[in-house]
Amino acid sequence: LSPIVELNVGGEMYTTTLSTLKKHPGSKLAEMFTGQPKLRTDSEGRFFIDRPGTYFKYILEYLRSNQVPTQCIQDVYKEALFYDIEPLIKQLEDSPQIFGELVARKQFLARVPSYSENIELMIRIARAEAVASRRSSVIVCVVRTEEDAARCQDALNSLDMDKKSVVKFGPWKATPSISDLLDCIQMDVESKGYNISFQPHVAEKGFRFKSYDYFYKFLFTWW
């Protein structure tokens, strides 16, 4: 291989040295250029990597000067994981953005039973009710303790609705509150491209419990 390498990364063109690309021998990026290159070339003979080219400049800058990026942290982190550049991965995980997501929020959500599955269930229910409608709603029951879970079940039994359409989150053993979990639900559904909001669910007159103790309505707006 020539010591000077021309790259086409997702349509963005880069020129660098072979030694820069192989700076971290155990990385996937280094392996791409070890021995016989394992990459296709474009019409101009440049090595082609089918990844977002916008963020590769931050990867390249780190390889050249050990400069950890301060912009587009989440996206650069994904690319660092793909290229398996371990020192960069560790340094990015120490940044407030990644640390907060991985160590704080993700660790909390890991203690909420079936969290990811419930997010998908909410979306399926909302999409099923969206036919010929501008908005659709999903009722969510949020309980933090086992005691609340039992009360929630009693409340569900007195609700005049299809219990299968109520998505239950909790209980969990962690510091964050119900409002924190509600924010997480909204954040993760919105990250999938949906426009949603939520409010306490107000049940019909004569309901045995204050509905806002456990129940919330998530509103999906489609257009």
From TrEMBL:
One of its GO terms (biological process) is protein homooligomerization. Transmembrane segments: none annotated. This is BTB/POZ domain-containing protein KCTD14. InterPro entries: BTB/POZ_dom, KCTD7/14_C, SKP1/BTB/POZ_sf, T1-type_BTB. The lineage of its organism: Eukaryota, Metazoa, Chordata, Craniata, Vertebrata. It holds the Pfam family KCTD_C. Residues 3-100 form the BTB domain.
